[in-house]
Structures are given as structure tokens and as C-alpha cells.
Design goal:
The protein is mostly beta strands. It has one helix and 20 strands. A hairpin with a 3-residue loop joins strand 14 and strand 15. The chain is elongated. Keywords: Signal.
Length: about 325
């Protein structure tokens, strides 16, 4: 009887190794490995991680349970299309895939548990390769994008922003274990690309905490550099009623505005982030006028369009064009 038990145990062990496939002990950078993950020491300090702008669309890739290995998933495509972004890679099945941090990518500073991951030596369940460049296409267009990136095996990580075929902005960092923020800004951005060169140790990248600011119906800017992205909420025989936020001020300010058909004048009231009154402007677009602050201060300022078309008094035309 004991001999029979020993034979059964031996057969079970042989089946585990040969019949059912070899069982790897570890997962490293999203692929199975015989060796345990080892942290990378002695790296220099990099950029700080930046908070997303107020009002930005934020994607942390954390809403679903994801696998540890690339072969258990496929490249990201339309999952976030309802938020205005579609992902694509250099080929039909290639690109980044969403993995859990259990894939052991030697990074820190990401929002747990998931991120968008790349490993040029890894394949997806459908045969695609987890490689860049990673393209993100936007509708509506955006005016700002930032994303946290990192990996000690990424080499130089670059972020490009495009409006059609025109490059609008560019940013880059050298990959480290601690994630760093890349950002691009400009009017009418409809596509961004992330590339990484890899280094002598491989080609691996982690991307997380994507945030972007969608463009709106009207962009207004004053002569002090404050900028508002205003969306049309109503139009009638009087004018266009708009509401939005200040995008360039550290302490974000909200704004409400009325553009009057009769005299092309703009009535604009701005608020601090806590809702308290900041200042009021009444004047023609592009003309010098007076502002009055909540503290009784006054001064002159010019408010004009920035990157958007001037409205036309056609109540049937629907949402105003953005001019891009």
C-alpha cells in the first residue's frame, strides 16, 4: 500500500512538471520567471509627480481586477472611449496592456493596484506584443495631458502631442523606478504618442494616472494670463450663457459669462475655488475694460478669445464651434 502511495505521488509530480506544463515560481515585469524580482538600487532622483488639474478627466486603470501576466490579457483599445480617448499600438494587436502590480515591474509612485504596462519581450493572449509606441486619440480635442511614467528598463520616455499632422508639444524623461510626470499642452490636441527606447537590460514601461483637459466651446483669456475654458449652457435672443473653470491658475477659479449679441459685450464673473467672489469684468472682447475684485480693488484688463472662434448670433446653429 505504501509503495502504491509513493508511485501515485511520483506520478502526480511528473504530471505537474511534464504533463501540465512547467510551473514558474515568479512573475517579473509581467512574464513568468524562475528568478525572484530584485529591486533596482542606486538610481538618481527624478521629477516630482504632479496632481491632475481641476476638472481634468482622470484614468487610473484601477476600476477592474486585472491579471499579473501579459499572456492573460490583450492590448488596451476602447475601454475608455466613453471618456473621450481610444488607445492603439504600432500594429493591430500590439500596445500596452492593463496589469496588476503583482506583475512586479520595479516601480513606485503608481496608484494601486493597476497600471498600463509594456514589455517588448512579452506577448498577449491573442499573439500581440506589449510594445510601443502607444497612441491615444481624443474626441473632443484636448488642451492639456499629463501622465506618470517609469521603469528602470525604459530608457528615454517621450511624450508627443499632435494636432492633425502638426506636432504641438513634446516632453521627455529618463526612466526610473519612481514614476515621473510627463505633460504636454496646446490648442486642439487630437492625438498623443508615448515612446520609450529601452536600455541594455530590456524594454519595459509602466504608465499610470493619465489626466487630460478636454477643450470646450470657448476659451477666454485675460491680459494677466488667466484662462477659462467655457462651455455653452444656453443661447437665446440675448446671447450665449457660458460656464467653466480657470485652467492656468494654481488656485482654480470658476467663471460664468454672458456674451451679448447686441453689442458683442462680455459679462464675466469669476470665483475662487471655494466659491467666493474673485472679480467681475464687463466690456467688449479685445477691448480694455475695468475689473472689480471682492476686496474693492479695481484695475484695467483685456479679455479676448484664445483658440476659439467668435460666436455668431444664429440661435439654430447648436453648440458653438471651437475653431480648431
Amino acid at each position: 500500500m505504501r509503495k502504491l502511495i509513493r508511485v501515485v505521488l511520483l506520478l502526480a509530480a511528473l504530471i505537474m512538471v511534464f504533463g501540465a506544463g512547467y510551473a514558474f515560481a515568479f512573475v517579473v515585469c509581467g512574464v513568468d520567471s524562475d528568478s525572484p524580482p530584485e529591486p533596482i538600487a542606486g538610481q538618481p532622483a527624478g521629477r516630482d509627480i504632479l496632481e491632475a488639474p481641476a476638472g481634468a478627466v482622470a484614468i487610473g486603470f484601477d476600476e477592474d481586477e486585472e491579471p499579473c501576466n501579459f499572456y492573460q490579457t490583450t492590448a488596451l483599445r476602447n475601454k475608455y472611449s466613453s471618456l473621450g480617448v481610444i488607445f492603439s499600438g504600432p500594429a493591430a494587436l500590439d500596445g500596452g496592456g492593463i496589469l496588476d502590480e503583482c506583475g512586479n515591474f520595479f516601480v513606485s509612485g503608481h496608484s494601486s493596484p493597476n497600471f498600463l504596462a509594456f514589455n517588448v519581450a512579452a506577448s498577449f493572449s491573442d499573439g500581440g506584443v506589449a510594445r510601443g509606441p502607444q497612441t491615444m486619440s481624443f474626441s473632443p480635442t484636448i488642451s492639456h495631458l499629463q501622465v506618470n511614467v517609469g521603469s528602470p528598463y525604459a530608457g528615454t520616455i517621450r511624450l508627443f502631442a499632435f494636432r492633425g499632422a502638426t506636432q504641438v508639444d513634446f516632453d521627455f524623461v529618463v526612466g526610473l523606478s519612481a514614476l515621473q510626470t510627463l505633460s504636454v499642452s496646446g490648442a486642439g490636441i487630437d492625438r498623443v504618442e508615448i515612446t520609450f527606447t529601452g536600455n541594455e537590460f530590456g524594454g519595459v514601461l509602466v504608465v499610470d494616472d493619465l489626466a487630460f483637459v478636454q477643450e470646450c466651446d470657448y476659451c477666454l483669456q485675460d491680459s494677466f494670463g488667466y484662462e477659462w475654458c467655457l462651455n455653452e449652457i444656453k443661447r437665446d435672443s440675448v446671447g450665449i450663457y457660458m460656464k467653466g473653470t480657470c485652467e492656468t491658475d494654481v488656485a482654480t477659479r470658476g467663471a460664468e459669462a454672458l456674451y451679448r449679441w447686441g453689442n458683442s459685450a462680455l459679462d464675466l464673473v469669476a470665483y475662487q475655488i471655494d466659491g467666493s467672489f474673485a472679480f467681475m469684468y464687463n466690456g467688449g472682447l479685445g477691448n480694455q475694460s475695468q475689473w472689480v475684485s471682492a476686496y474693492g480693488g479695481t484695475g484695467t484688463v483685456v479679455v479676448n478669445y484664445c483658440g476659439s472662434s467668435q460666436a455668431t448670433a444664429d440661435e439654430t446653429e447648436g453648440p458653438a464651434p471651437d475653431g480648431q
